Amino acid sequence: MDVLIFIVSGTLAAATALIFAAMGELVAEKSGVLNLGIEGMMATGAAMGFVALSLSGSYTVGFLAAAVLGCLLSMIHAVLTLVFRADQTASGLAIGILGLGLSSAIGKRYEGRTVEGLPELDFGPLSDIPIIGPMFFQQDIMVYLSIVLIFVTWYVVTRTKLGLVIRAIGESPENAHALGLKVRLVRAGCVGFGGAMAGIGGAYMSTAYTPLWAEGMIAGRGWIVVALTVFGTWIVPRVAFGAYLFGSMSLLELSIQAFGWNIPSQAMSVMPYVVTIIMLAVISRNLAFIRLNSPASLGAVLKIS
Amino acid sequence: MSRLVIEARPERSVWAPIQVSLLAVFLTCLGGSVLFMIYGVSPLKGLDAIFIDPLRTSYGIGEILLKMAPLLLIAQGLAIGFRAQIWNIGAEGQLIVGAIAATALAIQFQGTTSPLLLPAMVLAGMIGGMCWAGIAALLRAQFNANEILVTFMLTSVALQLLYYLIGGPMRDPGGFNFPQSIRFDPAAKFPILIEGTRVNASIFIGLAASAIAVVFVQRSFVSYKMSVGGIAPAAATYAGFSSKKAIWLALLISGGAAGMAGVGEVSGPLGMLQRNISPGYGYAGIIVAVLGGLHPIGIIFASALMALVYVGGDFALLSVGVPNAVTGIFQGMLLTFYLACSFLLTSRIRWIKPDDLKQEAMAD
Question: What residue ranges define each of the domains in chain A, with the CATH number in brackets?
Answer without folding.
Answer: 2-293 (1.10.3470)
